[in-house]
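User: Could you check the structure of this?
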Amino acid sequence: MSVLIKGRLASIANKDGKKLFHPQAVSRGLVTTKQLGDDIAEKSAMTRGDVLSVIDNMISLIKKALRDGKSVKLDGIGSLYITVKSNGNGVEDLRDLSINQIDHAHIVFREEKTRTAGKTRATLSDDISYELAKELQEQLGKIGVTDTNVPSGNPDWLGEDDSEPSGGDTGGDTGGESGGDDLLG
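Assistant: Sure, the predicted structure tokens are below.
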């Protein structure tokens, strides 16, 4: 199966004053902990209850590690870590910095990357294939676009830099809930 892609119009214009469309991933659904437990039990000698117990314990330990200020690395997938936001509550002088400035915390996921022969590869996203959502294909067809192929693998618009995602309005991480108009809602 592949990741569905739709178009999203940026809510903020670029440096040339143009609002551009960016690809955005569309979820095909949600896989719950119970569904994962069923799938793992089917592939192992463990019962669903045993698997769910292990998953519940793992989740508890991940939460504890994050609350203790640690990052959690899940081999083959990536790492989870905490960031905090102060939402405009910055101070000019470092001596005035306080934990009271923290508005809220976020759990951030960063995909695991490997480096071989001088090239950095994303462990997970390098093996993803893409397809345009049916509704987007139909809309493009109405305006005369017939070549709607989306390249497989890690297309240029996903980038290979190690910077943090920049949000859906700038062509960065377009899987989020940032502002902008969906070409397909």
